[in-house]
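Q: Got a minute? One more chain.
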Amino acid sequence: MDQQFDLAQEKQNNLQLLLKLAPYAHQVMGEENVFTLTDKEKYIYVVQGTELKLPIKQGDAIKPGSIADNCIKAGERVVKRIPKDVLGTPYIGRGIPVFDDDGSLIGTIATGQTIDIQEKVSNMAVELNTYLENISSTSINLMSASEELAATAQTLSDNTTGIEKDIKETDLVIALIKEVSDQTHLLGLNAAIEAARAGDQGRGFNVVAGEIRKLAARTNNSVKEIGEKLKHIQEIVLGFATQVHEVSVVSQQQAANTQELTATMDRIRAMSEELAQIADELIK
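A: Always. Here it is, folded:
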């Protein structure tokens, strides 16, 4: 009987020692947290935190399903995350069983730590990651469109170069026609001179010579008009070629910038995922 009394007294003494240390332990763990000490039936020490208040007080019986209750039943450390909808503030509950020298469980030490900031950081990281995924998807589509535009602009630029070459070759043809026209006009002029020398016998030939000169004149005028129109077309084509080249350069630069933006978004997304992991680690 005396041995049982001594054993009970020793357990009580151990709890009393923990009671003396409890205020210091609370300060070490942070005054913003809730700190509790229990025996196997009730709370023998309760200090509410500056940022978290739990509906318990000293002398209350241990509630089923609480951290202390789970700790006593499991006989080991317990960690439980309590969502915001329970008390209005999310918090993490931690508890450890307390044993006496012979290994018998005599009580628990439990804390409640607010995780409102950590959850906000975690939620922000998740939300940021979602936004980044949407931006990254848009950037990829934009990059694809830019590359397609750059390819189209390059094709137009190549085609414009071909048109410029064709116009220059047309200039050679026009020059040849003008040369033939000049020679024809000269031939008609010489024919008219010879017809004049022949007198009456060259009248018919003189008519032919006149028609040759008229044809040469019309041809020369047409060549001049065609040359002016082709020159105008060439100027338009050259202006178009310049604009196409500028579009091509801008498109290529846009594609490169979009690719760099996508890479940056990937790095930020990786950082946001790491931030979310860190936030989760803080509340374990």
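A: The chain has a mean pLDDT of 77.
Q: Perfect, thanks.
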